[in-house]
Amino acid sequence: MSGLLGQFFGDGHAMIVLLLAGVLPNEVWRMLGLWIGGGIDEGSELLVWVRAVATAILAGVIAQILVFPPGALATVPGFLRYGTVTAGLAAFIVTRRSIFAGVVCGELVMLVGKWWLG
Fold first, then answer.
1. Is residue 33 part of a domain?
2. pLDDT value at residue 46
3. Residues with Cβ < 8 Å from 69, sequence gap 6 or more?
4. Minimum mean pLDDT range among 25-34, 36-45, 62-71, 100-109
5. Residue 50: other Cβ atoms inside 10 A
6. What digits encode the pLDDT tens for the residues 41-93?
7. The domain containing residue 25 runs over which residues?
């Protein structure tokens, strides 16, 4: 069994490098943000502004992916890409703002549509 785990995890040195270079630097900033942001009121004007900026950036990224699709998504016709986003948004609204339902619905529409088109 240890041979199988060794194959799955790879070289032990690589895991140590991944932990030191990937996980620890990220976790330091997350914990610092938790510590600093723990006392901020969620309804404060600063956080409302931050949430609005984050939403605008996300909307811009989604629009850019729709209009100029990268990689394999470029092979999907435009009507299917836009239909997928529309179906995901509809599922999000119908399920009372469930992000999970919107993403799953969008993925299913994309997969079924791509399968149907060939």
1. yes
2. 86
3. 76, 81
4. 36-45
5. 13
6. 888 898 899 899 999 999 999 999 999 999 989 999 999 999 999 999 999 99
7. 1-39
**What are 72's two structure tokens?**
């394999």
- pTM of the prediction? 0.60
User: Considering the domain boundaries, does residue 62 fall inside one?
Assistant: no
Domain-embedded: residue 116: no
- The number of folded domains in the chain is 1
99 occurs within a structural domain: no
As a whole number of angstroms, the distance between CA 33 and CA 23 comes to 16
